[in-house]
Amino acid sequence: MVLRMRTKVKALPGCPMSKCMALLSGLWTPELLWSLSNGPRRFSELRRDIPAISAKVLTSRLRDLEHRGVLGRSVMPTSPPTVEYDLTPLGRELLPAIKAIVDVGSRLLLRDLAIPSPQAVDAPGPGHLDPEHLDPGHLEQ
């Protein structure tokens, strides 16, 4: 039997999936979009939402996503100045894809833990999602 190496298939320049995945594939990007899905958040709130992310990486990701048009940055005229991040229309367009990933992940967690329903999950653990994020109507507002 002869083993052949598979050749890597390059995405076509106009491939819609590649275009979308280029936005979503950055480190911590799906988590940031999910965290911002309920509305504007400050830097410190995002750090609390995603405890494993360092301040340096969070700053870098926020700048990159702002540059790509996925999120906006607003400086509030307070003393001291407050900065909030929010999803742009493009960022909100990506939420159904993130929601689908969260739904599959929730089912996988339940299956792996042999828990019959989401209501049986009592104690938040690493990667805990707020109950409103598990609500199927969350994105239909």
UniProtKB/TrEMBL annotation:
A Pfam family reported for this protein in Swiss-Prot or TrEMBL: HxlR
Gene Ontology MF annotations: DNA binding
Renumbered residue ranges of the record's region Disordered: 120-141
UniProtKB keywords: DNA-binding, Transcription, Transcription regulation
Leader sequence segment: none
Compositionally biased region (Basic and acidic residues): 129-141
DNA-binding is among the record's keywords: yes
Domain HTH hxlR-type intervals: 15-113
The UniProt record lists the keyword Lipoprotein: no
InterPro entries in UniProt: HTH_HxlR, WH-like_DNA-bd_sf, WH_DNA-bd_sf
Name of the protein in question: Helix-turn-helix transcriptional regulator
